[in-house]
Design a protein that fits this description.
- The protein has a four-stranded mixed beta sheet.
- The chain is of the alpha+beta class and about 120 residues long.
- The N and C termini lie far apart (about 45 Å).
- The protein folds into two domains: about 55 residues, no CATH class; about 60 residues.
- The protein contains five helices and four strands, in the order H-H-H-E-H-E-E-E-H.
- The radius of gyration is 20 Å and the shape is elongated.
């Protein structure tokens, strides 16, 4: 691969930023042709994911994943972040209680499952 998906996504972002919807559509077609020419179309999912990250970063939004034991907890946590974040909720009953929150690259795990795992490791030593 000549370029990473992040580099392709950055190039696409530069191509479409500030353009009208019609002009951006033309740029996307050119970009797709460029990917095809460079045998990189199979990276389209990774490029799309990185493109979304770049757009979110340029808008000043954080990418937040809230993994909680139940939907009610997840919704309460989401409400604390407001609309200034791109928030994804995952309900995972295996957490038992509590939640694990990932903000961009920072992970905060305050779930019972995590605490039990930490206690198990401490008792093993």
């Amino acid at each position: 691969m000549k370029y990473s998906p992040r580099q392709y996504a950055s190039a696409l972002h530069s191509m479409v930023s500030g353009k009208t919807e019609e002009a951006a559509a033309i740029e996307v077609k050119k970009f797709a042709a460029f990917l095809k020419k460079n045998n990189a179309l199979h990276f389209h999912r990774e490029i799309a994911e990185k493109f979304a990250d770049i757009c979110r970063e340029s808008d000043g939004k954080k990418k937040i994943t809230i993994k909680a034991a139940n939907h009610e907890i997840a919704q309460k946590i989401k409400a604390r972040f407001g609309e200034s974040a791109d928030t994804k909720i995952v309900v995972d009953k295996e957490l038992i209680a509590g939640a694990s929150i990932t903000i961009d690259n920072l992970r905060i795990d305050n779930s019972v499952k995590s605490r039990l795992s930490q206690m198990k490791k401490a008792l093993a030593h």
